[in-house]
Amino acid sequence: xxxxxxxxxxxxxxxxxxxxxxxxxxxxxxxxxxxxxxxxxxxxxxxxxxxxxxxxxxxxxxxxxxxxxxxxxxxxxxxxxxxxxxxxxxxxxxxxxxxxxxxxxxxxxxxxxxxxxxxxxxxxxxxxxxxxxxxxxxxxxxxx
Length: 144
Fold this sequence. Notes:
Largest sheet: 4 strands, parallel
Radius of gyration: 19 Å
Structural class: alpha/beta
CATH architecture: 3-Layer(aba) Sandwich
Strand order of the largest sheet: 1-2-3-4
CATH superfamily: Tubulin/FtsZ, GTPase domain
CATH topology: Rossmann fold
Distance between the termini: 51 Å
Strand content: 15-25%
CATH class: Alpha Beta
Shape: globular
Mean pLDDT: 78
Number of strands: 4
Order of helices and strands: HEHHEHEHEH
């Protein structure tokens, strides 16, 4: 004997009255002053591609004192381990300034283990993915 499926247990079976209580994702009302940083040469190329999109602020390699001034969000992108020292330095600088951070590691493999380890203590959100579109999604979600 199977139990009946309740209307509120399935998004496809939701009535119009119940659907009005669902959360619809929207961009934050207050735009953030954001920075996106490519931590290695592969990540820097991806950041350069993103520079063509409309963000509130987008930057490649940071001069920490100048470029973090006024920032309230930093997204660090890595595709290889050679950006691990930069991730630690940027993460420390952001922590000292109270800047929210996130990290994206593309093509997660043994070739990015050090980057993941360097980003983990500094990024409030850490995504390991093969989809570079996740970077734009994160930037949109935080209101960049």
